[in-house]
Amino acid sequence: DEAFRDRTSLVSVACPCSLVSIGRGASWGCSSLVDITFPAGLTSIGEYAFACCSALSSVTFPAGLTSIGDSAFAKCSSLGSVTFPATLTSIGWRAFADCSSLSSVTFPAGLT
User: Is residue 107 part of a domain?
Assistant: First the structure.
């Protein structure tokens, strides 16, 4: 939880292959964060994990992701596109609230 909170000079995060969960508020307020590389084994992203990362412009989640926590990407004002995997079963309350630039959301084919 809150591993990199408010590290305003953090530009990029490459998560290790062994990471399966991103904790609550892990990168909250990292206003210069532009790029996140999620590992293939990631299954969950906690509440507020990337909230207020105002420079983040796009997110593609790995195939094994099952849950995105409440407000996980809230107030990411530059976030323009999101691509969800077929394995996703839960998106938390206000997960993408106040993402004013969000114009493209891609769901997997066949999702009902």
Answer: no
Residues in the chain: 112
Model pTM above 0.85: yes
Q: What is the CATH number of the domain that holds 20?
A: 3.80.10.10
Q: How confident is the model at residue 37 (pLDDT cuts 50, 70, 90)?
A: confident
DSSP string, 60-82: E--TT--EE-TTTTTT-TT--EE
- Taking residue 61's Cβ as centre, other Cβ atoms within 10 Å add up to 18
For residue 97, how far is the Cα from the chain centroid?
12
Number of domains the chain is built from: 1
Q: Domain for residue 112, yes or no?
A: no
